[in-house]
Inverse folding.
C-alpha cells in the first residue's frame, strides 16, 4: 500500500507543476494583452502543457526562457469469434494460465480510442461482481484508475475517462453528438477493447443468425478506457497525449511506484496520416515521446501500423520502443456465389441467407425497374431509394444493382440496398461492380435478405451479358420480359482456407522513415503481423464508424486497428506469466518466435492490387509483416531475448542523423554522450541498415530466459548482395546470463532495392531465435 504521506508528496508535486505552468503562461502573455487557453498540464510522464495560441504567440513561446520544445498540434485518425482458435490460445497460453476464466487475470489493458459501451456483454462485470467496489479489492493492487461516470466501473472496466480539451478548442467537438463522457459514440473503441480483453464466449448474433461466440485475447484482463477520439473528426494529439499521460505508470521515488492509473499494456489503434512535420525526426514528435515515457514506466505499447498499404513507406508508427502491428487475413472467410440460369456460377461476397428453396428466380436490372420519378439523390442503379422503382415489376425477382463510387465516397451502403429489396418484396439482390472499382476492398455485410456483391469486373460483365441476352425488349428499348434467372447461395456460412495468414492489401508497409522527407531509418517496421481482417467484435448500437452496422451490437471490421489489440491482449497474457519482464523483452519474445510461413508451411504471401480481382498474392517481405505472424504459444518460451531500456532509446535518438543533441535534450531532458554511435546499435531483435556502404559492425546482446543451459549455433541466410558473419558462431548460455554477439555486415555490390535475409540462433533444446536482416546497399566493399 502507498502511505498517505507519500500520496501527499505526489499531490504537492503535481500541484506545484500546474501552478508553475499557469504562472509561466500568465507572465509570458499578460503584458501583451493577448488571450490564450490552457488545455492540459502534463505532469505524470512529461513536464509540459497544451495551450491554444495564435501563430505569433507560439513564436513568443518558443523564445521564452525555460521553454525547451514547442510543437504544433496535429490530427490523428482511427487506424472475434475465431482468432483465439486460429492463434492457438485455448490449448496454448490460456491452458497454461488455468483456462480462459483466468487468462490475463490481474493485468490492466489501457485502450486509447473512441470510448466504450459499458452495457455490452463483452464488458459485463458479472464475473467480478463480488469484488468490483475498488481496484485494490479486485486484485489490482497497482492500479489507481477511476471512472468519471461511476456506473462505467463494474469490475471488468476499471477505468473510464475522456479527453476533449483540444477537440473543443478546435471547434470540432459537439457534446450532443460526440458524448461528453467515456461513452463510445463511434463503435471503434468498443471493438478494439473487446478484441484485446473482451469477456469469454459472448454470443454474436446479427439478424437472428449466430456467428459463433467472441472472446478477447486476454478474456480475464481488466480494461481501462481513455476516450480521445471522436466519431465526427478523429482526434488531436494533445488529447491523446493527455490520455497516455493519465494511463501510464509513474516511478516518482524508489519507495513507491504506479501512483497514476498504472495500466500494464496500452493499445493505440490510432496514429497520424503522415510523418509529423513539426519535429526534426519522426521519433521526436510529442506523441512518440509520450509513448517513450510510458515505456520507461514499464508499459508495453502496441500501435496499429496504418491502413496505407500496399505502398512503401506508409507506416505511421515509427519508433523502436513501440510494437507496430500489421494486419493479416486468417483462415476464415465468408464467400458467396450466384448460380445463373445458363449453368454458370459466379463468386462474390455477402453475409446473407440464400434465396428460398432450390428454385431460380427472375432477375431485373435496376434501370429496367425504375418508375416515373426523375427526382433522386442517388442513382437508381445504386438501389438506395425504393420509391424510385416500380414495385410490381421488382416483386419476387432478384434486383441487379451497381456497386459504384457512391458506395465508397457518396454514402451508399449495402445495408440500404437490402432495405430497398425488403421494401419492394424482391427475393434478393446482386451488386455488380463498375470496372473502375475492380480490386476495391469489399467487406461482407450481414443482411437479412439474400444478396451478393460480385467483386470482379469479369464476373460482373458475364452476369450482365447473360441478363441482356435473355431479356426481351420493345422497339423503344424498354424491357418486355425477364427471362434471366438466378439463385443466390448461403453467404452466412464460414469457409476455412488452407493458406493463412496473408498480409492484407490495406496494411501499411515499410521501410520505416526517420523524418518528414521520408528518409529511411535503421529500424524494422512493421514489427509483427496479427489478424486484422473480418474481425468480429463488440459494437455500440449508436456507432457510426461503419454505416452497415448501425444499430448492431457486433460488427465485422477490418484494419490494422483490429490487428493491434490482438498483440496488446497477447502482451497482457505474457505480462501475467512473466510480470517482471520489460516491454522490450515481451516484444522480443513475440518477434523472434513469429512465423514466416503459413499453415501449409509455405512462405507468407502479401496481397497486392489487381486490375481484375480483389487482389493478387506476392511473396511477402519483412516490410510487409515485420518479424512474421504472431505465435503466442512460442512466445511463452523464446529461449533468448533482446532487451533495451530507456537509456538505450536515448542513445538511439542521439544516433539519428540530422538530429542535434539540443533537440533531444529539449524533448527528453537527457544529454547525449559522445560518441553517439549508430542507430543500428540499438539492441533490437532485428538488423536494419538503410544505407550500407562497405561494412558495418552491429552489436547485439542475447539473454537467456530458458530453464536450462543451452548450446546455440548461428545460422545466417545472407541478403542478396550482402555477406554477414557472426562471432561467436556457437555458444552456450546459462539461464539468466547474456552473450554478446559481434555481427559484421558488408556489401558485395550496390542496389536501389532493399534485400532481406535472417540470422537464426538454433538451440540444442529446441529453441530457434530468428532475427530478420534488412539492408539497402549503397556501394560495394572495395576489399570484397
Amino acid at each position: 500500500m502507498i502511505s498517505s504521506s507519500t500520496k501527499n508528496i505526489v499531490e504537492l508535486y503535481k500541484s506545484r507543476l500546474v501552478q508553475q505552468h499557469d504562472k509561466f503562461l500568465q507572465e509570458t502573455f499578460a503584458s501583451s494583452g493577448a488571450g490564450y487557453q490552457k488545455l492540459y498540464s502534463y505532469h505524470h510522464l512529461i513536464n509540459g502543457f497544451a495551450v491554444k495560441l495564435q501563430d505569433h504567440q507560439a513564436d513568443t513561446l518558443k523564445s521564452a526562457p525555460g521553454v525547451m520544445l514547442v510543437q504544433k498540434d496535429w490530427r490523428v485518425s482511427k487506424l472475434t469469434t475465431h482468432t483465439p482458435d486460429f492463434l492457438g490460445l485455448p490449448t496454448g497460453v490460456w491452458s497454461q494460465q488455468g483456462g480462459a476464466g483466468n487468462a490475463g487475470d490481474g493485468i490492466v489493458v489501457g485502450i486509447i480510442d473512441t470510448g466504450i459501451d459499458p452495457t455490452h456483454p463483452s464488458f459485463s462485470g458479472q464475473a467480478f461482481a463480488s469484488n468490483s467496489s475498488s481496484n485494490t479489492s479486485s486484485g489490482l493492487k497497482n492500479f489507481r484508475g477511476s471512472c468519471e461516470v461511476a456506473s462505467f466501473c463494474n469490475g471488468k472496466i476499471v477505468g473510464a475517462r475522456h479527453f476533449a480539451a483540444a477537440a473543443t478548442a478546435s471547434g470540432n467537438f459537439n457534446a450532443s453528438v460526440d458524448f461528453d463522457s467515456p461513452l463510445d459514440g463511434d463503435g471503434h473503441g468498443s471493438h478494439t477493447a473487446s478484441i484485446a480483453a473482451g469477456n469469454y464466449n459472448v454470443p454474436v448474433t446479427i439478424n437472428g443468425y449466430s456467428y459463433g461466440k467472441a472472446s478477447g485475447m486476454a478474456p480475464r484482463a481488466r480494461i481501462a478506457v481513455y476516450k480521445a477520439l471522436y466519431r465526427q473528426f478523429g482526434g488531436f494529439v494533445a488529447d491523446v497525449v493527455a490520455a497516455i499521460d493519465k494511463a501510464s505508470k509513474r516511478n516518482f521515488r524508489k519507495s513507491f511506484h504506479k501512483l497514476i492509473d498504472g495500466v500494464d499494456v496500452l493499445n493505440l489503434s490510432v496514429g497520424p496520416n503522415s510523418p509529423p512535420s513539426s519535429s526534426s525526426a519522426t521519433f521526436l514528435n510529442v506523441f512518440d515521446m509520450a509513448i517513450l515515457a510510458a515505456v520507461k514506466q514499464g508499459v508495453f505499447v502496441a500501435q496499429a501500423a496504418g491502413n496505407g498499404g500496399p505502398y512503401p513507406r506508409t507506416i505511421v508508427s515509427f519508433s523502436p520502443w513501440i510494437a507496430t502491428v500489421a494486419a493479416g487475413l486468417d483462415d476464415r472467410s465468408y464467400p458467396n456465389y450466384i448460380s445463373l440460369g445458363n449453368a454458370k456460377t459466379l463468386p462474390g461476397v455477402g453475409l446473407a441467407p440464400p434465396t428460398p428453396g432450390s428454385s431460380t428466380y427472375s432477375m431485373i436490372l435496376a434501370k429496367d425497374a425504375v418508375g416515373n420519378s426523375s427526382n433522386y439523390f442517388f442513382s437508381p442503379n445504386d438501389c438506395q431509394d425504393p420509391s424510385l422503382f416500380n414495385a410490381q415489376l421488382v416483386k419476387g425477382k432478384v434486383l441487379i444493382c451497381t456497386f459504384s463510387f457512391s458506395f465508397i465516397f457518396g454514402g451508399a451502403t449495402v445495408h440500404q440496398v437490402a432495405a430497398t429489396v425488403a421494401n419492394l418484396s424482391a427475393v434478393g439482390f446482386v451488386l455488380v461492380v463498375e470496372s473502375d472499382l475492380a480490386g476495391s476492398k469489399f467487406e461482407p455485410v450481414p443482411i437479412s435478405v439474400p444478396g451478393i456483391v460480385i467483386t470482379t469486373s469479369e464476373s460482373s460483365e458475364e452476369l450482365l451479358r447473360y441478363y441482356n441476352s435473355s431479356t426481351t425488349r420493345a422497339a423503344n428499348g424498354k424491357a418486355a420480359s425477364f427471362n434471366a434467372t438466378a439463385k443466390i447461395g448461403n453467404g452466412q456460412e464460414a469457409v476455412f482456407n488452407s493458406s493463412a495468414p496473408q498480409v492484407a492489401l490495406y496494411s501499411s508497409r515499410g521501410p520505416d522513415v526517420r523524418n518528414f522527407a521520408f528518409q529511411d531509418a535503421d529500424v524494422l517496421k512493421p514489427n509483427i503481423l496479427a489478424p486484422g481482417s473480418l474481425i468480429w467484435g463488440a459494437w455500440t448500437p449508436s456507432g457510426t464508424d461503419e454505416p452497415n452496422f448501425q444499430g448492431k451490437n457486433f460488427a465485422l471490421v477490418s484494419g490494422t486497428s483490429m490487428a493491434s489489440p490482438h498483440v496488446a491482449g497477447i502482451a497482457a497474457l505474457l505480462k501475467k506469466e512473466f510480470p517482471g519482464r520489460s516491454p522490450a523483452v515481451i516484444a522480443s519474445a513475440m518477434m523472434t518466435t513469429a512465423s514466416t510461413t503459413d499453415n501449409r508451411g509455405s512462405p507468407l504471401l502479401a496481397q497486392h492490387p489487381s486490375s481484375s480481382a480483389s487482389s493478387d498474392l506476392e511473396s511477402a517481405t519483412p516490410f510487409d509483416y515485420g518479424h512474421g505472424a504472431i505465435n503466442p504459444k512460442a512466445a511463452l518460451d523464446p529461449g533468448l531475448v533482446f532487451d533495451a531500456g530507456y537509456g538505450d532509446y536515448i542513445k538511439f535518438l542521439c544516433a539519428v542523423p540530422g538530429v542535434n543533441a539540443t533537440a533531444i535534450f529539449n524533448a527528453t531532458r537527457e544529454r547525449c554522450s559522445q560518441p553517439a554511435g549508430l542507430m543500428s546499435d540499438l539492441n533490437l531483435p532485428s538488423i536494419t541498415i538503410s544505407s550500407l556502404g562497405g561494412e558495418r559492425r552491429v552489436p547485439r546482446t542475447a539473454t537467456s530466459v530458458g530453464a536450462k543451459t543451452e548450446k546455440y549455433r548461428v545460422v545466417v541466410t545472407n541478403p542478396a548482395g550482402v555477406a554477414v558473419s557472426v562471432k561467436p558462431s556457437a555458444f552456450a548460455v546459462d539461464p539468466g546470463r547474456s552473450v554478446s554477439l559481434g555481427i559484421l555486415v558488408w556489401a558485395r555490390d550496390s542496389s536501389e532495392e532493399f534485400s532481406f535475409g535472417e540470422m537464426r540462433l538454433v538451440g540444442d533444446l529446441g529453441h530457434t531465435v530468428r532475427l530478420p536482416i534488412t539492408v539497402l546497399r549503397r556501394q560495394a566493399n572495395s576489399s570484397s
Q: What stands out?
A: The chain is about 20% helix and 25% strand. The CA atoms of residues 139 and 435 lie 58 Å apart. The first helix runs from residue 4 to 29. The radius of gyration is 28 Å.
